[in-house]
Design goal:
CATH class of the domain at 49-68 and 155-407: Alpha Beta
Strand order of the largest sheet: 8-9-10-13-14
Strand content: 15-25%
Protein name: Arginine deiminase
CATH superfamily of the domain at 49-68 and 155-407: L-arginine/glycine Amidinotransferase, Chain A
Largest sheet: 5 strands, mixed
Helix content: 25-40%
Number of helices: 13
Pfam families: ADI
Bound molecules: citrulline
Keywords: Arginine metabolism, Cytoplasm, Hydrolase
Family: Belongs to the arginine deiminase family.
Organism: Paenibacillus kribbensis
Shape: globular
Distance between the termini: 20 Å
Number of strands: 19
Length: 410
């Protein structure tokens, strides 16, 4: 039987992908909560849904199977006790302060059908939804400012980050930001309980209980032997080391990890916001991540003398490191916004470097990044543009919005 997960490159023909359609969770964004919930503006729900549907249809038109996280999660929770366990865990990790008990919230959530239960947990529970029958004291009013009993998860449409397929297994990620911490629980339940995945013993290279954070936007599979991981605002060096050790001891194929250090700032939150692979020898890059001589900090992690030790070498040239690990004589780094200081900063902010390769030399990008798109085409890349007015407000592009489940080997 075909393995349900398989990704051994960034550019191999995409066969199955996981998306999440933006939903009611976005209607729970208010100006006060934008920053903690990692948004810069409030998307207009009917339009963002239309844009997202267009994205999904664009992928289907290319023969790609599109799965939805919300549907898989609902299908995974068939068992009554599993539903209860899931709700308990969600409430334990995400219940906001308030005068409602765990039990009342649990009963409220369990009164929904599976699909609505998943949607409700994703969108959050507003305080005015539940009649607690208990009057609040003044000090409770004062402490209890949040309008939610359960905080919404508006970043779920960025399916790339909470989990990432590597080879025939995956990482289920410990998310750096509180606003995204519970997101990886959906994929944990899906992989452990959905029949599509339980037929195989899917290896989990790193799970969400690991102490140090890692996010999928930082995890890039350069080829069947090499992974690049951003050391970023979201992904810690400790998690990269642990993942490398686990991979080297539990499987044969991946032999090295390139830890690429990027500036730790909001605009460059993950490696894939500043660097993506678009063809065998072509990459997009935001010029601002390189120093004046094009230098950066890159660490190559390889198997060490024993299972708990890594061999680590330091490099400063991204081009040379990539050439070496990919066995290339030459390669092209295509600058986001063409390298013009203003176009490059503007288009990077709207995810101009965040391309989703669906085959070697074929990428999906946002239509608004016209300078970067034209440059990709000049380099012989087929660029499929999608609508981006509302989708881009969450600060993620086509790669962030997609979790490849199966790619053909190249
Ligand atoms: N891989 C990515 O760069 N994902 C984009 C995530 C955007 C989201 N608002 C966040 O701050 O986590």
């Amino acid at each position: 039987m075909k393995h349900p997960l398989h990704v051994a490159s960034e550019i191999g023909e995409l066969q199955t992908v996981l998306l999440k359609r933006p939903g009611q969770e976005l209607e729970n964004l208010t100006p006060e909560y934008l920053q903690p919930l990692l948004f810069d503006d409030i998307p207009f729900l009917p339009v963002i849904q239309k844009e997202h549907d267009y994205f999904a249809q664009t992928l289907r038109n290319r023969g790609i199977e599109v799965l939805y996280l919300e549907k898989l999660a609902a299908e995974a929770l068939v068992d009554k006790s599993l539903r209860e366990e899931f709700v308990d865990q969600m409430l334990e990790e995400g219940r906001a302060e308030g005068n409602v008990s765990h039990q009342i919230l649990k009963e409220y959530l369990l009164s929904f059908s599976n699909e609505d239960l998943v949607q409700k947990i994703m969108s959050g529970v507003r305080k005015n939804e539940i009649e607690t029958g208990k009057s609040m004291q003044l000090h409770e009013f004062m402490q209890d400012h949040s309008p939610f009993y359960l905080v919404p998860m508006p970043n779920l449409y960025f399916t790339r980050d909470p989990a990432a397929v590597i080879g025939d297994g995956l990482t289920i990620n410990k998310m750096r930001e509180t606003a995204r911490r519970r997101e990886s629980m959906f994929m944990e339940y899906v992989v452990k309980h959905h029949p599509r995945f339980t037929s195989h013993n899917v290896p989990i290279w790193l799970d969400r209980n690991y102490e140090f954070p890692i996010e999928g936007g930082d995890e890039l599979i350069l080829n069947e032997e090499t992974i690049a991981i951003g050391v970023s605002a979201r992904t810690s060096a400790k998690a990269i080391e642990r993942l490398a050790l686990n991979l080297f001891s539990r499987q044969e194929k991946f032999k090295r990890v390139l830890a690429i250090e990027i500036p730790k700032c909001r605009a460059f939150m993950h490696l894939d916001t500043v660097f993506t692979m678009v063809d065998y020898d072509k990459f997009t890059i935001h010029p601002a991540i390189q120093g004046p001589q094009g230098n950066m900090n890159i660490y190559v992690l390889e198997k060490g003398p024993d299972e708990e030790t890594l061999k680590i070498t330091h490099h400063t040239s991204l081009t040379e490191s990539l050439k070496e690990v990919l066995g290339l004589k030459d390669l092209v780094l295509i600058p986001c916004g063409g390298g013009d200081a203003i176009a490059s900063a503007r288009e990077q902010w709207n995810d101009g470097s965040n391309t989703l390769a669906i085959a070697p030399g074929v990428v999906v990008t946002y239509d608004r990044n016209y300078v970067s798109n034209a440059l990709l085409r000049e380099h012989g890349i087929e660029v499929i543009e999608i609508l981006s007015s509302e989708l881009s407000r969450g600060r993620g592009g086509p790669r962030c919005m997609s979790m490849p489940i199966v790619r053909k080997d190249i």
